[in-house]
Each structure stands twice: as C-alpha cells, then as structure tokens.
Amino acid sequence: MPEARGIRPVETPALDPTPGQTVGPFFGFALPVPGGAEIAPAGAAGAVRLHGRVLDGAGSPVPDAMVELWQSDTDGAVVQQAGSLRRSAGEFTGWGRAATDADGWYEFWTRVPGGGFFSLAVFARGLMHRLFTRAYLPTAASDPWLSTLPQDRAGTLVARAQDDGFVFDIHLQGDQETVFLDFSARDRR
C-alpha cells in the first residue's frame, strides 16, 4: 500500500514471546473428586498411607497444589480398567488425586505397589506443565533406574517408612529439589 502524504508506516518493535497460561491455582474446587485420595479404604487390611508436603524453593508449603498417584497393584501389575473416579468397595484402580491443604500436606490411602514405587504427577501454581516424579519404597533402593542417579539425587526419590505407611515430601526447587522425570521427548513423536 502506498504511503499517504506525510504519514509513515509505524514500525513495530520486536517483541519477545510471552509464556502460556500456568496450570493453576484452581485445583481446590475444580479437580478433586470424592474419595479421590482413597485408592484403598483407610484402615482396611493391607492399606498404607502415603503422605507428605509439597514445598517451594524456600521450603514454604504450597497450599494450592494437586498430586496425582499412579501405581501398580501389590503383584506389580498395572491395573487397566475404567472407572477410576467411581470406585466400588474393594476395587483397586491404582489411581488417585489429592489436593494439598493450607500447610502443603497431601495424603493417599493405598496399597504397597509391587513395582517398588508410586508414580506421581504434581500440578501447582506457577508451573507451565505438570511435573512427574516417583516415590520409591525404602526397600527398592536397588532399582535399576534409581541406581543410575547420583546418591544425593536418588535420595530425593525415596520415601521414609512410618508405622502406617510412607512419607514423601516433594520439593519443587532448591537444594533438596526432588528429581523430576522428563517425558517431553516422547511427546515429540
């Protein structure tokens, strides 16, 4: 288009791209489901508690995070059945979801996974994508993948035993940052 007399086209400065929308915080009212953290009935024979805190880089609790748990059954088989949101009494689906409370605590009632670890996904304010990690049982220290990590980093993936189950704190950043798994290469196929 020709220039009009005395009017010059406006030059638009180069702009840096801006980040996309973060994944929260909206978990407290949108995603928890009734009984979502009770994969096995609390207090039932064989039920264990997996609980801990989600903490930021300064060690402060993250009160609006959500943790998802995926695990094998006690024999090590991955349960593959529909209906994870609608559990029947005694039915084990291997999946659960728990929101953190005001002090950053989450809690699941489940069973000991035969595979030696719980798979976890963390959603929290400020994250562009969910974070994936594992909580290994203290007895699984010889796991082939876990043993490839430096000992101090591998230690961030091992849950502590407690009378009724296990404690696993998730540190999003900082000196004690939990090891997170990167599946982004899989997504590029």
From TrEMBL:
Q: Which Pfam families does the record cross-reference, listed alphabetically? A: Dioxygenase_C (PF00775)
Pinpoint the Intradiol ring-cleavage dioxygenases domain residues. 48-115
Gene3D superfamilies to which the protein is assigned, alphabetical: Aromatic compound dioxygenase
Entry GO MF terms: ferric iron binding; protocatechuate 3,4-dioxygenase activity
Q: Where is this region: Disordered?
A: 1-21
Into which family does the record put it?
Belongs to the intradiol ring-cleavage dioxygenase family.
UniProtKB keywords: Dioxygenase, Oxidoreductase
Q: Quick one: which gene encodes this?
A: pcaG
Q: Please, which domain of life does this record's source organism belong to? A: Bacteria
Record's protein name? Protocatechuate 3,4-dioxygenase subunit alpha
- Organism, as annotated: Metallococcus carri
Tell me its EC number(s), please: 1.13.11.3
Could you confirm whether the keyword Oxidoreductase appears in this record? yes
Q: What class of enzyme is it?
A: oxidoreductase
